[in-house]
Amino acid sequence: MTAYRLALAALAATALLGCKREERRFREMPPAATASNAVIVSELQPGPAFVEAGMRNPYEDNAYAVSEGKTLFNQMNCSGCHSHGGGGIGPPLTDNEWIYGSDPQNIFATITEGRPGGMPAFRGRIPNYQVWQLAAYVRSLGGLQGKAIRSSRDDHMMYKESEQARDKGHPEATFVPPPSEKP
């Protein structure tokens, strides 16, 4: 009986040590969105036409932050234009065509600087850590997060397969800047 209990305790200890839990950083402040190594994204966007090269979203693999981003998406009425990610006045966020790119720094720049033709600039209106949470949620809408990280859609919005059921995608940027006209 003692060997049985010892084996059971060893099995339980192995199971507990083998579980890798997500690290939850609830109030971590992300890096500032100032560009020192700038990359030109497009000449069509308002404000500075750059994003920082190699900028990484610290909330990218954080389910809590994606959930907070979903809440912000609804509270900031992003659904008014993007129709819960399916597109409306604003472009859809659930497809594989991203006009300005699907990298976290491109989404951050879109939210903070705005885009011509309708996307307002939110720099100074939303703290950077919330912009990063929104960016993480927007990427989850496009299936760019792991299945365990993605936020699920509300039941009444299930017009297609849940983001959690889709494989991780890699959308390509569809915007091609026009050739510069230099005299």
Account of the protein in words:
Helix 2 (63-75) crosses helix 5 (128-141) and helix 4 (104-113) crosses helix 5 (128-141). Helix content is 32%, strand content 5%. 31% of the residues are buried. A two-stranded antiparallel ribbon has the order 1-2. The chain has a domain at 56-159: Cytochrome Bc1 Complex, Chain D, domain 2. The protein has 183 residues and is mainly alpha-helical. The chain is built from five helices and four strands; from the N terminus they run H-E-E-H-H-E-H-H-E.
Entry keywords:
single chain, 183 residues, mainly alpha, Cytochrome Bc1 Complex, Chain D, domain 2, two-stranded antiparallel sheet, two-stranded parallel ribbon, 5 helices, 5% strand
> What is the mean pLDDT?
75
Q: What's the tally of helices?
A: 5
| CATH topology tier name of the domain at 56-159 | Cytochrome Bc1 Complex, Chain D, domain 2
CATH-level-4 superfamily name of the domain at 56-159:
Cytochrome c-like domain
Termini gap: 90 Å
Radius of gyration from the CA trace?
20 Å
- The number of E-state strands comes to 4
Order of helices and strands: HEEHHEHHE
Which strand order does the major sheet show?
1-2
Summarize the structure.
With 183 residues, this protein is mainly alpha-helical.
Task: Annotate the secondary structure layout.
Blueprint (H helix, E strand, L loop, with lengths): L1 H17 L19 E3 L9 E3 L10 H13 L3 H4 L14 E2 L5 H10 L14 H14 L30 E2 L10
Parallel strand pairs: 3-4
Antiparallel strand pairs: 1-2
